[in-house]
Amino acid sequence: MEEKTNLERPDAAAGLSRYERVKLARHQERPFTIDYVSDLFTEFIELHGDRNFRDDPAMVGGWANFRGRSVMVIGQQKGRDMKENVHRNFGSPHPEGYRKARRLMRMAEKFGKPVVTFVDTQGAYPGIGAEERGQAEAIARNLFVMAGLRTPIISCVIGEGGSGGALGIAVADRVLMLENAIYSVISPEGCAAILWRSRDEAERAAEALKLTATDLLDLGVVDELIPEPAGGAHIDPGGAAEQLGEALARHLDELCAIDVEELVLSRREKYYGMGRWEEVPTE
């Protein structure tokens, strides 16, 4: 019998280092956006295209029913094998992916329906074609729109939350994060290459970045840590979906009861307050 690696053991999540959690967040069997959509939602109708250039398979979205409530679901989607990863661009959206997401958010706002997003990307695609078509502008426009969108928004970090590529669909009233997900301005490998001129220092960089759910909950960047089944979400995808579903239902009930003007004001104050500090004089 082939021996399991440490990260595949049922007790793997206990006492892991930050870089070990990075590896769990990247686990190929970890549930992706479409898996959660299948487990948590019914009557999903996928919508395609940005009405400008093309459809981006790395960003999926559409109408769905969540426990009797109509919602707009949007998320980044990776592939399980090489063929699907090439089709999905390894979960790294082009600008048309972010423009599609924005189009769907505006549609949800028009009909007064909540938006639920699933974040799982190493980052937006940095290729020449993507830059030529306005990658940075597309993400920046999403941040602007989401900051003032007149409908509840909940974002769920389910795997990798990488840089602006993640933030492009994560400016939300509530940000939920799975226990073994990560959320950071840069990957540990990228950070190590910049600071120490070697990707071999990725583990050291992960410790410095404080990119785990526990770190970000302590810093006030995310609003709730969602526990995963023992060993990680890939061990029991149904159990992970159930935990996430309960949190989603609770937060949706709370947000849908808030007046829309108060909702938008509170969302903006939430992000204005991040990183705020003050000097306190000492004796």
Oligomer: single chain
* Largest beta-sheet characterization: 8 strands, mixed
Average pLDDT reading: 92
Radius of gyration: 19 Å
| SSE string, helices as H and strands as E | HHEEEHHEHHEHEEHHHEHH
Number of helices: 12
Give the strand tally: 8
Helix content: 40-55%
| Low-pLDDT regions | 1-6, 8-12
Secondary-structure-based class equals: alpha/beta
The shape, in one word, is globular
Features:
283 residues; alpha/beta; 42% helix; globular; disordered N terminus
Explain the overall architecture:
There is one protein chain. The chain is α/β, with parallel strands linked by helices and 283 residues long. The chain contains twelve helices and eight strands. The protein has helices spanning 18-25, 33-40, 82-88, 95-110, 128-132, 135-148, 163-167, 188-195, 202-209, 213-219, 237-256, 260-272; strands spanning 42-46, 59-66, 69-76, 115-121, 153-162, 174-178, 182-184, 224-226. Strands 1, 2, 3, 4, 5, 6, 7 and 8 form an eight-stranded mixed β-sheet that branches. The longest helix has 20 residues, at 237-256. It is globular and about 50 Å long. It starts with 17 loop residues before the first helix and ends in an 11-residue tail after the last helix. Residues 1-6 and 8-12 have low confidence and may be disordered.
